[in-house]
Amino acid sequence: MSESTGRRVLLKLSGESFADPAVGYGIDPLTVHRVAEEIASAHEGDIQIAVVVGGGNIFRGVSQAAKGMDPATADYMGMLATVINALALRDALEKQDVVTRVQSAITMQELAEPYIRLRAVRHLEKGRVVIFAAGTGSPFFTTDTTAALRAIEMNADVILKASKVDGIYDSDPTTNEGAVRHSELSYMEFIARELRVMDTTAVTMCKEHDVPIVVFDMNTPGNILKAVRGDQIGTVIH
User: Fold this and answer.
1) What is the DSSP code string of 12-40?
2) Residue pLDDT, tens place only, 143-165
3) Which residues make Cβ contacts (< 8 Å) with residue 123, sequence separation at least 6?
């Protein structure tokens, strides 16, 4: 397999990216197929793609059972949910003829490779998509923080944060029709305004290592492809 030396991106997909739109949780095969199709289309170019997945679509479906639980135990349940999503995405990508590897921060050798940084980098260099599952492997860290950590470790050029909104606004666009979308923000502006599109720990890490973040709407068909290719879209935090 020839080695790819082009742009390297870290795509952050929330668990809701996989959900059945009718109920808001579970895994919808059509939605996963669309996401995989766009990743596959972008992958045809000279772009290395790593993915971090959330688990909210599965964990929120059982969240009533988690109420009153030990917080660490609940977090581990959430990590396991991300593994389910990672396997679903890998299956969809492989059906698009994209060679894909899942690496898990929690060892489960029958399902995924253990997370090994240099092995992940090598997969990317060989043109494989790498999906990082099970968060950081430790409780009390979000998958946003995982995305920042893996992007830094992979020396990614950018984090692409797929969300439900088409960028970051000066006020809530759902309640204020006059809300203005920012085309770009500094790290410090984002942190000072306590914006909640991405967690502050993740943004602080990106600031320290100079990794830009692009926040964009993944529900619009074609946007994942545009973001991965580097088209101007959403809001850039840098």
Assistant:
1) EE-GGGGS-TTTS-S--HHHHHHHHHHHH
2) 999 999 999 999 999 999 998 88
3) 101, 130
pLDDT in tens, 3-13: 555 699 999 99
Q: What is the pLDDT of residues 120-139, one digit of tens each?
A: 999 999 999 999 999 999 99
pTM for the structure as a whole: 0.92
The amino acid at 218: M
For 74, counting Cβ atoms within 10 Å of its Cβ (0-12 exposed, 13-18 middle, 19+ buried), the class is middle
**Do the Cβ atoms of 1 and 126 come closer than 8 Å?**
yes
Residues lower than pLDDT 70 in the chain: 1-6, 60-67
Contact between 106 and 82 (Cβ < 8 Å)? no
| Helix pair angle (71-95, 29-43), 10° resolution | 60
Fold of 7-237: Carbamate kinase (3.40.1160)
- The position carrying tokens 């830094």 is 152
Q: What residue has token string 């090994």?
A: 116
Distances 172 to 169, 180, 202, 237 between C-alpha atoms, Å: 7, 9, 22, 18
Assign residue 119 a region (left: φ > 0; alpha: ψ between -120 and 50; beta: otherwise).
alpha
β-pairing, 158-163 with 7-13?
A: parallel
